[in-house]
């Protein structure tokens, strides 16, 4: 009988432990009003209004960022602090960026215990935390933060350690779940929607910066570079002499005396004439607007002729041009390498088997965002991954599937009516690519392809690939083919330039290439300006 009772007690105890293990340490679903359990900061800078609101298209409630361009701060204190030193800890919450996120944060701060007398109404960006986790996007920043504040056992100071190469924030307006799993073996895993996006080790310098364990040695701050330390690997040859026939004053270009004016050149015709079809607007006031002048158009007579206006001989490269002479460089006999201070033992170095995490005593949301419509929901702290997975499956997944189907239906409707928002962005980028100066000779053809793609949205990807291939091919030719593509010019106007004169080993013409590049760029800009330009979608 006694043995049976003992077995029963053992089974009940095991069941209670199992039930306890399956309970979250904290779970906030916002099914009830948050006032009373959450405290809104009373600091003057936090003017944003928090609201309990339904997620768009659902009956599920969450904590809503209701206004644009505001600072927000709200905090919830835990009944008991959650320790992070032993066992697995899962941090998880759901966020929906209902109006997108151009510039702002949607992360949570896991607050460490505060000093005695601290008031939750004083919560602000200076309130110390243990971990900051969640999405942040603005400008070039687009990441899911994971930041750990760790106290140095040597100095007693807290240091921020940032996860390196964190995952990016999903760009859509759907609900997403962010999960951080902290393991007792120093591993941390970052999941988005239940899918692992990053795995790291708290003690690895490759995963966190700065590293939790400081370097054993550091550069000596008192070490100074000797005055006679020479870091120049190369120096001008002191024995080199400028050749007698080196003329630094010779111009880079000279007039082509062999050029002749093309037959049929119209000396007395201007390149542009007044538009004969233009007329002065009826509301034009000569006293207020000045004397009206008809806009200019290209002279049609010049289109059939070799050219119009005063003919001038074209310029050609001067074969005698060498530029400013410079002594050639030689190995520096006094070169000692790049100086570095000597290493000394780091007084702040310490060894660590695992991070000394501070407990989590509260969770807070303290953000500054330019977007409204950010909805937080299903905030969880658990010591069992299965609990987090179960809540994700029950709360987030059904909503996400509904949102995804709605998104697909909207995209299909948009495709039937014309271009989707994504496709419009793609074509806007392609038009910008077509404006790249070195693609000027191909601009008309590229725009033809883009406009064809706008009329047939189903071939958007093919159009994108085609333009990118052209872009990369031309760029490759410029970088490795040695010759920049140029718009066709009239051969009668300017003779072909001879190849540049090679300089000998006695010196160099350092500014020659730079001047030629400047001239070539100027000519390209001139030709691009003169070339007729089609009207595209973005110009209508």
UniProtKB/TrEMBL annotation:
Record-linked InterPro entries: Calret/calnex (IPR001580), Calret/calnex_CS (IPR018124), Calreticulin/calnexin_P_dom_sf (IPR009033), ConA-like_dom_sf (IPR013320)
Residues annotated as signal peptide: 1-21
Record-annotated disulphide pairs: 103-138
One annotated Gene Ontology cellular component of this protein: endoplasmic reticulum membrane
Domain of life: Eukaryota
Subcellular location: Endoplasmic reticulum membrane
Region listing for Disordered, in residue ranges: 206-310, 490-540
Ranges that cross the membrane: 459-480
Basic and acidic residues: compositionally biased ranges: 219-235, 293-304
Alphabetized Gene3D superfamilies for the sequence: 2.60.120.200, Calreticulin/calnexin, P domain
Pfam families (alphabetical): Calreticulin
A molecular-function term among this protein's GO annotations: carbohydrate binding
PROSITE patterns for this protein: CALRETICULIN_1 (PS00803), CALRETICULIN_2 (PS00804), CALRETICULIN_REPEAT (PS00805)
Transferase among keywords: no
Comp. bias (Acidic residues): 245-257, 265-276, 283-292
One of the GO BP terms on file: ERAD pathway
Bilayer topology annotation: Single-pass type I membrane protein
Keywords annotated in UniProt: Calcium, Chaperone, Disulfide bond, Endoplasmic reticulum, Glycoprotein, Lectin, Membrane, Metal-binding, Repeat, Signal, Transmembrane, Transmembrane helix
Keyword Repeat attributed: yes
Biological role stated in the UniProt entry: Calcium-binding protein that interacts with newly synthesized monoglucosylated glycoproteins in the endoplasmic reticulum. It may act in assisting protein assembly and/or in the retention within the ER of unassembled protein subunits. It seems to play a major role in the quality control apparatus of the ER by the retention of incorrectly folded proteins.
Similarity comment: Belongs to the calreticulin family.
UniProt name for this protein: Calnexin
UniProt source species: Panicum miliaceum
């Amino acid at each position: 009988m006694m043995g049976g009772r003992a077995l029963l007690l053992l089974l009940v105890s095991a069941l209670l432990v199992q039930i306890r293990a399956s309970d979250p340490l904290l779970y906030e679903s916002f099914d009830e009003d948050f006032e009373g359990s959450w405290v809104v900061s009373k600091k003057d800078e936090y003017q944003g209004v928090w609201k309990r609101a339904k997620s768009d298209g659902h009956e599920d409630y969450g904590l809503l960022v209701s206004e644009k361009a505001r600072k927000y701060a709200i905090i919830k204190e835990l009944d008991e602090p959650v320790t992070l030193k032993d066992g697995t800890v899962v941090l998880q919450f759901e966020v929906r960026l209902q109006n997108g996120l151009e510039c702002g944060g949607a992360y949570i701060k896991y607050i460490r215990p505060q000093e005695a007398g601290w008031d939750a109404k004083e919560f602000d960006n200076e309130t110390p935390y243990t971990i900051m986790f969640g999405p942040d996007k603005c400008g070039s920043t687009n990441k899911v933060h994971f930041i750990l504040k760790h106290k140095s056992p040597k100095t007693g100071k807290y240091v921020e350690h940032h996860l390196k190469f964190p995952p990016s924030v999903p760009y859509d307006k759907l609900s997403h779940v962010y999960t951080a799993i902290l393991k007792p073996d120093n591993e941390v895993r970052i999941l988005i929607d239940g899918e692992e996006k990053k795995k790291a080790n708290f003690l690895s310098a490759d995963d966190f910066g700065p590293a939790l364990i400081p370097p054993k040695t550091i550069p000596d701050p008192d070490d100074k570079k000797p005055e006679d330390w020479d870091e120049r690997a190369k120096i001008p040859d002191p024995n080199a002499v400028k050749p007698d026939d080196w003329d630094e004053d010779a111009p880079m270009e000279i007039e082509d005396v062999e050029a002749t004016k093309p037959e049929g050149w119209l000396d007395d015709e201007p390149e542009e004439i007044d538009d004969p079809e233009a007329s002065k607007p009826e509301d034009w006031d000569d006293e207020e607007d000045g004397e009206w002048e008809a806009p200019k158009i290209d002279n049609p007579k010049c289109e059939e002729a070799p050219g119009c206006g005063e003919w001038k001989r074209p310029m050609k490269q001067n074969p005698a041009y060498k530029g400013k002479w410079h002594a050639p460089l030689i190995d520096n006999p006094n070169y000692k390498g790049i100086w570095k201070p000597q290493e000394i033992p780091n007084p702040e170095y310490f060894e660590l088997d695992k991070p000394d995490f501070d407990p989590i005593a509260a969770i807070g949301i303290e953000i500054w965002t330019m977007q409204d419509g950010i909805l937080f929901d299903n905030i969880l702290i658990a010591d069992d991954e299965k609990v987090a997975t179960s809540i994700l499956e029950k709360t987030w997944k059904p909503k996400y599937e509904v949102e995804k189907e709605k998104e697909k239906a909207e995209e299909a409707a948009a495709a039937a009516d014309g271009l989707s928002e994504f496709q419009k962005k793609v074509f806007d980028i392609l038009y910008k690519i077509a404006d790249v100066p070195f693609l000027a000779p191909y601009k008309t053809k590229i725009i033809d392809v883009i406009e064809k793609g706008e009329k047939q949205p189903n071939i958007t990807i093919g159009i994108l690939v085609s333009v990118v291939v052209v872009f990369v091919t031309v760029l490759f030719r410029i970088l490795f083919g040695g010759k920049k593509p140029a718009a066709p010019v009239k051969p009668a106007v300017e003779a072909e330039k001879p190849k540049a004169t090679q300089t000998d080993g006695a010196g160099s013409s350092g500014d020659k290439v730079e001047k030629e590049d400047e001239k070539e760029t100027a000519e390209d800009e001139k030709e691009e300006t003169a070339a007729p330009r089609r009207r595209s979608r973005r110009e209508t």
